[in-house]
Design a protein that fits this description.
The complex is a heterodimer of chains A (about 325) and B (about 250). Chain A is about 40% helix and about 25% strand. Chain A is an alpha/beta fold and about 325 residues long. Chain B has eleven helices and no strands. Chain B is elongated and about 70 Å long. With about 250 residues, chain B is mostly helical. In chain B, about 80% of the residues lie in helices and about 0% in strands. Chain B has one domain. The chains are: A alpha/beta (about 325), B mainly alpha (about 250).
Chain lengths: ~325, ~250
């Protein structure tokens, strides 16, 4: 299970003077689906292109199943299947012709090509589409052919760059199920903008921002992150915030716009009981209390918008000084 | 692996009407020129019979036919090579080849093989015309072999230049027009040599000067080497160009 498939060390990549990927290191193990998140232009696609051998890194190393991608590219590339952002499809071929070609390119022995093609078509729900021209297929089916192309040679590592873009909700569910299934015996890297997708399909999440990894956490660890450290409470009588802030474990209390209070506390010391008791004693009329869960979206925004926040602050200070003058 | 890509490329050519129409157009035009030349021969046949050491049927028909074929194919080959890489670049399908366990050399040679197979078909179709004369006349097969060998080398050179131009851009028309320009320039380089005694080095570089001897039945290994060098140069440049794709960006 925990057999390491891909090892990436201090990867970096420059486009001219722009550093798209900065010193990124991570690993992927067999039977793991790794979700790769990040805002647009964060370096997700660049990283994936490097791992798939489409782009040479400016520094660092990529090892795929013990083969160095730079020193032994042929052996390393044999171990990966890659679906780029836009699937590399030849529109003038039929699905069967195309998949046969992909199998041949990826060194599937001649005798096994037919069974490889039929198995892959079955897995991707393409069994009726074999004789159709790829150019005439719908977007969803083209995406499936793209995925089929990436897994036809049963590579240990599958890299999927935004595989569910442009699909309808039913197709998205099917593709997600397929990815989960792939994750059982392959190592999968999945990049996406859709956060719930990560929660439903991935075992581990990585967030990349401006070329740097800002989070690398398993889904369980992330759950822990999300539960952390806040309560939302609401009273009929607005209490003195001082009382709440003095409770053991409470770090701060912030009133929210709708009259509710947000209580931030230490992770180990949950003040729920103390708040309940105090509310009864002082007759505040407590009518709501719930743990404040951070959504993945909030974590994502928090981790990726630091810079945006700084910019906003800088802007605010300049405007105030301007008005002062 | 080279063969896999080559055959795929060859088959794909015939999936578009372009390959078929090119084969048809070339065949019609060359057929007309061939028949016209044959008519000339028939017209002068009595006089030729009377002459001593007169040129034979092959010598009258073939060099002219192959000379014209070279000029027509100079126009046609860029149209065939233009889509080799640039179309893949445009449709972003190159990733399929780049992420497969292939070296850049295999990709380039595969693509080149595909176009060469097509040009061989074209060549065969042209060869059928003079060969049909065998039904009623005797031909100088040596001269014919030399001529077609020369044309094959020439076309292989055209294709290598076209492949390289196709790796440079994602616009097929740009690839076609620059291939055509480069080939035409190579062709007319010998004009610069006119007037000076013995020509000059520019004229030596001309494709045409290295094609003509083949049509006269002279197989000069220096001429063959010229074509082979041209082919290798442009194939290596193509490989370098695609490698730079991975490095740059």
């Amino acid at each position: 299970m925990s057999h390491t498939l891909v090892e990436i060390n201090n990867l970096s990549r420059f486009y001219g003077t722009l550093q798209a990927v900065k010193d990124v290191s991570f690993t992927i193990r067999q039977g793991e689906v790794l979700g790769f998140l990040g805002p647009n232009g964060a370096g997700k696609t660049t990283t994936m292109q490097i791992i798939s051998g489409n782009l040479a890194p400016s520094g660092g190393s990529v090892t795929i199943a013990n083969h160095d991608l730079l020193e032994d590219p042929r052996a390393a590339k044999n171990q990966i299947g890659y679906l780029p952002e836009s699937p590399p499809l030849y529109r003038e071929l039929t699905v069967n012709e195309y998949l046969d070609y992909c199998a041949a390119l990826n060194n599937v022995p001649r005798a096994k090509r037919l069974s490889a093609r039929e198995n892959t078509k079955e897995r991707c729900g393409l069994h009726d589409a074999g004789k159709r021209l790829i150019g005439n297929l719908s977007k969803g089916f083209q995406q499936r052919v793209g995925i089929a192309q990436a897994i036809i040679h049963l590579p240990p590592v599958v890299i999927l760059d935004e595989p569910t873009v442009g699909l309808d909700p039913i197709q998205i569910r099917e593709i997600r199920a397929l990815i989960r299934e792939l994750g059982r015996d392959h190592g999968v890297i999945l990049s996406t903008h859709i956060l719930p997708e990560v929660q439903t399909t991935c075992d581990r999440v990585q967030i990349i921002n401006k070329g740097e990894l800002v989070l690398n956490e398993s889904i369980e660890g992330l759950e822990h992150h999300m539960k952390s450290a806040s309560l939302t409470v609401a009273f009929h009588q607005s209490p003195d915030l001082q009382f709440l802030e003095n409770l053991p474990g409470v770090k701060s209390v912030h009133p929210e716009k709708d009259g509710r209070l947000r209580v931030f506390h230490e992770t180990e010391q949950n003040p729920t009981d103390a708040i309940l008791r105090m509310a009864v004693n002082k007759n505040w009329g407590l009518y709501e209390i719930r743990p404040g869960r951070l959504s993945l979206e909030q974590i994502f925004v928090e981790l990726t918008s630091d810079a945006a926040l700084e910019n906003a602050e800088a802007l605010a200070t300049t405007t105030t000084t301007d008005s002062g003058l | 692996m080279i063969l896999t890509i080559g055959i795929r490329e060859f088959k794909s050519l015939f999936l578009s009407p372009l390959a078929w129409s090119i084969l048809a157009v070339v065949q019609v035009i060359l057929g007309f020129l061939f028949l016209a030349r044959l008519e000339v021969f028939q017209l002068y046949q009595p006089q030729l019979m009377a002459m001593d050491g007169a040129p034979g049927l092959t010598e009258i028909v073939l060099p002219d036919l192959l000379g014209n074929a070279a000029v027509i194919l100079l126009l046609v080959v860029p149209l065939m090579t233009m889509r080799l890489v640039s179309e893949e670049r445009r449709n972003r399908t190159l990733a399929l080849l780049f992420s497969a366990p292939l070296s850049m050399t295999e990709i380039v040679l595969g693509k080149y093989l595909g176009i060469i197979l097509f040009l061989l078909v074209l060549l065969l179709m042209i060869a059928l015309m003079p060969l049909s004369l065998l039904a009623g006349a005797s031909l100088d097969l040596g001269l014919m072999a030399s001529g077609f060998f020369g044309l094959a080398l020439l076309l292989a050179g055209f294709a290598a230049v076209g492949l390289f131009m196709s790796t440079l851009t994602q616009y097929t028309t740009v690839a076609a027009i620059s291939t055509f320009g480069a080939l035409l320039l190579f062709w007319i380089l010998d004009w610069s040599g006119q007037g000076t005694a013995g020509g000059n080095w520019l004229a030596y570089l001309s494709l045409f000067n290295h094609y003509k001897p083949f049509l006269e039945g002279i197989f000069n290994s220096a001429d063959a080497a010229y074509h082979v060098l041209l082919i290798i140069t442009f194939l290596v440049l193509s490989i370098r160009r695609l490698d730079a794709d991975r490095l740059g960006g």
